[in-house]
Design a protein that fits this description.
This is DEAD/DEAH box helicase. GO terms for molecular function: ATP binding; hydrolase activity; nucleic acid binding; RNA helicase activity. One of its GO terms (cellular component) is cytosol. Belongs to the DEAD box helicase family. It is built from 18 helices and 14 strands. With 456 residues, it is α/β, with parallel strands linked by helices. The chain has 3 domains: 206 residues, P-loop containing nucleotide triphosphate hydrolases (Rossmann fold, 3-Layer(aba) Sandwich); 163 residues, 3-Layer(aba) Sandwich (Rossmann fold); 43 residues, no CATH class. The strands form 2 sheets. The chain has a 7-stranded parallel β-sheet, with helices on both faces. Strands 10-11-9-12-13-8-14 form a 7-stranded parallel β-sheet, sandwiched between helices. Strand 10, helix 13 and strand 11 form a beta-alpha-beta unit. Helix 2 packs parallel to helix 3 and helix 3 crosses helix 4. The structure holds adenosine monophosphate. Adenosine monophosphate binds next to helix 3.
C-alpha cells in the first residue's frame, strides 16, 4: 500500500500531514502526486470529496519549497482558480494547513467583498493565490495583480466554471499566463466542451480519474414521499420513529433550515446536531465527532458543509429538501451504502421540488420507490411538538451571523423567511446576479454517465 512517505514530499509537508492524521493517500492522490512531482501537467477527473485538493496542493507546495524565491510584487507563484467563494476559501484553508510549517503565504480573492484589502495583500506578492475568475480579472485590470510569474496554474471544477458562464474569463486568463508553467486541470465530468477547454491549458498531460460513482445510486434503496413543505417536519418525526436508524444524515438546502430541523427535533426530545457554514469550526468539529462516535445519531447538514464528511455506518440519508443539482443527490446518498452495506435514502419532495426529482431520476437512471404518507398523517401534523426557541443573543462576538442578517432584514422591514435562501456557494461577486444561482445542470452530467466520482 502506498503511504505519504513514498512520495518524497518535503519534510515540512510530511509534518503537516502527520498533524492532520493523514496516513493513507486517497486514490486520486496516489495517481496524481507522482507525475506532478515530476513537473508533468495533469488532467484530473475527480470531484470534491475525493481528496483532490491535497492531490494538487501537496506536490505544488513541494515545488515552491524546493525552488525557493520570493514572489514578485503584485505577482503569485501558484494560481488556483475555483468557481465559488466557498470552494476558493476551502482550498486556501487546505493550502494553509498543508503549508503550516513553512513560510509560504496564501491569499484568497473573490468578489462580493471590498477589493482594497485584497489589493494591499497582493502588493508584496504571494506564493499561493486562490481566486474566483471575475475578481481575479478585476484585480488585473486595476493593475493590482499580474500573472507573468505564475509557475503552477490550477483550474478546479472546470465543469462548474463552464456552467457558471466563466468561459470568457478563463480564455482571458489563459492569455495572461506565461507559456512556461505547470498546469493542473480538474473537472468532475469531461464532456467534449470541457475537454476542449482542457486542451487550451494543458501540455501533454497525464490523465487520472477516480472510480465512477454512478453505480452508488443503484446500491442504495431509494424512497420518495410527496409532502407539503410545511408538513415535512411531521414526516421526519414519523420516519425517525418508524425506521431502525443507526446513523442518519439529514440534508436541508439552507443553513437556517438545518437549524430549524434541529430545534423541532429538540422540541420532541430527539437530539441532533447541525453542521453548516454559519457554525464555527469548533462547533462543526464537535458535531462531527459526536456523530462519528455514535453519541448522536442524527446530523443535519447542508450540502456544502457536508463535503468531506466521511462517516462509516450511515444507515440512512434523509433528503429533507432535495437538491436542485442532481450530482449533489448522488453525492448525498453516497454517504450511505458504503463498503457493501445496504443504505436507505429517503427524499421528502414538496410540489415545487418535483422537477428536481425528475432531473435526478434522469441523471441517476434510477427511480425512487414511492412511499405514501401514513393514514393518520394529518393528526401527526396537528400534534407535532413545538420547536425549542432559537437561543436569543444580545449581540457582539460569537453572535450567529444568520441571525444578525435576519435581524438586519427585519429592521429594514423585509421578511427574512420569504422564500428559501439557498446555501448556493456564492459565486463570484463580479457575475450578474442571475448567474450566481444554483441551477440544475442540464448538460454534461447526463451525457457522461459515471463521471461523478468518490473515494472508494
Ligand atoms: P477534497 O476532495 O480535497 O475536498 O477533500 C475531501 C476531504 O478529505 C477533506 O476534508 C480533506 O481534509 C480530507 N482528506 C484529503 N486527503 C486525505 C487523506 N489522505 N486522508 C484523510 N483525509 C483526507
Amino acid at each position: 500500500m502506498t503511504t505519504f512517505n513514498d512520495f518524497g514530499l518535503h519534510a515540512d509537508i510530511n509534518r503537516a500531514l502527520a498533524a492532520k492524521d493523514y496516513t493513507v493517500p486517497t486514490p486520486i492522490q496516489v495517481q496524481a502526486i507522482p507525475p506532478l512531482m515530476k513537473g508533468r501537467d495533469l488532467c484530473g477527473i475527480a470531484q470534491t470529496g475525493t481528496g483532490k485538493t491535497a492531490g494538487f496542493a501537496l506536490p505544488s507546495i513541494h515545488h515552491l519549497l524546493t525552488y525557493p524565491h520570493r514572489a514578485t510584487p503584485r505577482g503569485c507563484r501558484m494560481l488556483v482558480l475555483a468557481p465559488t467563494r466557498e470552494l476558493a476559501a476551502q482550498i486556501a484553508q487546505s493550502c494553509r494547513d498543508y503549508g503550516r510549517f513553512t513560510k509560504l503565504s496564501v491569499s484568497t480573492v473573490f468578489g462580493g467583498v471590498p477589493i482594497n484589502k485584497q489589493i494591499r495583500e497582493l502588493s508584496q506578492g504571494v506564493d499561493i493565490l486562490v481566486a474566483t475568475p471575475g475578481r481575479l480579472l478585476d484585480l488585473i485590470d486595476q493593475r493590482a495583480l499580474r500573472l507573468d510569474d505564475v509557475e503552477i496554474f490550477v483550474l478546479d471544477e472546470a465543469d462548474q466554471m463552464m456552467d457558471m458562464g466563466f468561459i470568457h474569463s478563463l480564455r482571458r486568463v489563459a492569455k495572461l499566463l506565461p507559456s512556461r508553467r505547470q498546469n493542473l486541470f480538474f473537472s468532475a465530468t469531461m464532456p467534449k466542451e470541457i475537454a476542449g477547454l482542457a486542451d487550451q491549458f494543458l501540455n501533454d498531460p497525464v490523465t487520472v480519474s477516480v472510480a465512477p460513482q454512478a453505480t452508488t445510486a443503484e446500491k442504495v434503496r431509494q424512497q420518495v414521499t410527496f409532502v407539503e413543505q410545511k408538513e415535512k417536519q411531521a414526516l421526519l418525526h414519523h420516519v425517525l420513529k418508524g425506521e431502525e436508524i443507526d446513523r442518519a444524515l439529514i440534508f436541508t438546502r439552507t443553513k437556517h433550515g438545518a437549524d430549524r430541523v434541529v430545534r423541532h427535533l429538540a422540541g420532541a426530545g430527539i437530539q441532533a446536531f447541525a453542521i453548516h457554514g454559519n457554525k464555527s469550526q469548533a462547533q462543526r468539529t464537535t458535531a462531527l465527532q459526536a456523530f462519528r462516535s455514535g453519541q448522536v445519531r442524527l446530523l443535519v447538514a447542508t450540502d456544502i458543509a457536508a463535503r468531506g464528511i466521511d462517516v462509516s455506518g450511515v444507515s440512512h440519508v434523509i433528503n429533507f429538501e432535495i437538491p436542485n443539482v442532481p450530482e449533489q443527490y448522488v453525492h448525498r446518498i453516497g454517504r450511505t451504502a458504503r463498503a457493501g452495506a445496504e443504505g436507505i435514502a429517503i427524499s421528502f419532495v414538496a410540489p415545487d421540488e418535483k422537477t428536481y426529482l425528475r432531473d435526478i431520476e434522469r441523471v441517476t437512471r434510477t427511480k425512487a420507490e414511492p412511499v405514501k404518507l401514513p393514514d393518520d398523517f394529518n393528526e401527526m401534523v396537528r400534534s407535532l411538538p413545538k420547536p425549542v426557541q432559537a437561543p436569543r443573543n444580545t449581540g457582539g462576538k460569537g453572535r450567529d451571523p444568520q441571525r444578525q442578517r435576519e435581524d438586519a432584514q427585519r429592521r429594514k422591514g423585509e421578511n427574512p423567511n420569504r422564500g428559501p435562501r439557498r446555501e448556493a456557494p456564492a459565486g463570484d461577486g463580479a457575475q450578474p446576479q442571475s448567474k450566481r444561482r444554483f441551477r440544475p445542470r442540464r448538460s454534461g452530467v447526463g451525457a457522461h454517465k459515471g463521471a461523478v466520482t468518490r473515494v472508494g
